[in-house]
Amino acid sequence: MIELKGKEYQQKYMPILKDKISKLDKQLGLAVIQVGNDEASNVYVKQKEKKALELGYKFVHKVFEEDVDNETVINYINELNNDDSIDGIIVQMPLPEQLDAALIQNSVNPLKDVDGLSYTNGGKLEQNHPSLIPCTPKGIMALLDEYNIDVEGKNVTVVGRSILVGKPTALLFTNRNATVTLCHSKTKDVKEHTKNADIVVVAVGIAGFLTEDMVKDGAVVVDVGISRIDGKLYGDVDFENVSKKVSYITPVPGGVGPMTVYELMNNVYEAYLLRNNL
Amino acid sequence: MIELKGKEYQQKYMPILKDKISKLDKQLGLAVIQVGNDEASNVYVKQKEKKALELGYKFVHKVFEEDVDNETVINYINELNNDDSIDGIIVQMPLPEQLDAALIQNSVNPLKDVDGLSYTNGGKLEQNHPSLIPCTPKGIMALLDEYNIDVEGKNVTVVGRSILVGKPTALLFTNRNATVTLCHSKTKDVKEHTKNADIVVVAVGIAGFLTEDMVKDGAVVVDVGISRIDGKLYGDVDFENVSKKVSYITPVPGGVGPMTVYELMNNVYEAYLLRNNL
Questions:
Q1: What residue in A sits closest to B116 (Cα-Cα)?
Q2: Which domain CATH number covers A61?
Q3: Which of B102, B161, B179 is facing A181, going by the closest CB pair?
Q4: What is the pLDDT of residues A124-133, one digit of tens each?
Q5: φ/ψ (deg, to 5) at A179
Q6: Domain span including residue A251
Q7: Which of B105, B125, B174, B175 to mutate to test the interface with A (most CBs of A within 10 A)?
Q8: Chain A residues inside the 8 Å CB shell of B159
Q9: Considering the domain boundaries, does residue A271 fall inside one?
Q10: Close Cβ partners of A147 (under 8 Å, ≥ 6 residues apart)
Q11: Does the pTM of the predicted model rise above 0.90?
Q12: Given this model, what pLDDT does residue B171 score?
């Protein structure tokens, strides 16, 4: 069994990205919009800020009060859309109830939409046209590529159909010529779909969801989940037992998580290239 | 075995649609843009014109010469986008090589994009937000609904991953809580994925592709293919033998085909409602 170490990938590729960026004649900029004071969001934004500064990005962190309205947020997004010093814009989720998340997300210029959550980038992914791809799915593919795990013609089962992870992951694997089955909370028997799969991606947010009996010998298992129980981090995979059976598996932490952060930074660079036709 | 008769559906629902349209205070309009003189395209456009006129739609058929450039087509699309008498715009595929199909398709106002092929509508479908959905997938769902075939929790295998049929069909079934497997030309063993499926949708364009041994007893089979051999029409399903085994099956012709035409007409009406916030 080989661990797919996203942490090591990040350590290897961040300097390479930094080198590419240093050759540009402009400082790249990332803006994060946050509403309210969600504990988890604070942590995620801090992580992003740290990596952005490491790369020498300009980093803008705008915090709105919990009771802000759509118009105020969208006006600010428009300022960022028109600001040439900003290459990537993130709206930190979740947003409070009174805001229209889809409307706000789609106010971001698709060419600066580094989370890949706009309709335009979703449609481009569906149609397999070049686009800004959501960071976690993109990171999963990059990690498999790094370990030379071939995807074409493989049977892939994705568990979880979120807009951020499950659906774009399924589309990305389909675009890479894998045969994909997409399971979710309404799937009658998830095991039926995972037990013969060559590659299983789990993104359900339930600690230890994927057990040993649900995967075949030699499968590749990608664990996107992260749950904190009594201060300890757990993935969606029963790592101790599943890891004995598979050929490759991502650990938690240190697997998919660092890939997501890396790909976000990479998307800022790619957004810059796309927007400037480079 | 029950045949899923799209022809009968069309005959039943066209008058209902006509009745709804007659209550509007405006004539609806559909525009079809065609480039060159492709034989099959001529037939498809004629079909659309016939149905549109039956409903009392204004019908505009614009034909450009084979060697037209992107700018000329896009300028014309912009005219239609700004023309309030036009509610739906179709660009008849395929387009000649010198044209940028994606650019042209995405020049259509997403609110008039009755083929559902723009990035915006693709992304909305992916995110399960209200949108103009491609006509064939929409027609398939409507036909299953008409026969009270429950989709939730079912295992669905879609064969073919085109932008027009396969991918949006897979997304639509996922949004309807089915567990979907999407097969295509790079799938190693299609039978492995069809033989246990509750519902099989085939859209590969190969006459008789889906054989009896590939489906389970009592399955529901939807045949999107249409091939003309020696003047006779064939679907992607070996109808004679598969039909003996399944619970429901669409015939060819008279199954999915009439649904696609109906849903196109329906999309013009829905586009009008969407664009006017009705």
A1: A123
A2: 3.40.50.10860
A3: B179
A4: 999 999 999 9
A5: -100, 115
A6: 135-257
A7: B174
A8: none
A9: no
A10: A2, A4, A248
A11: yes
A12: 98
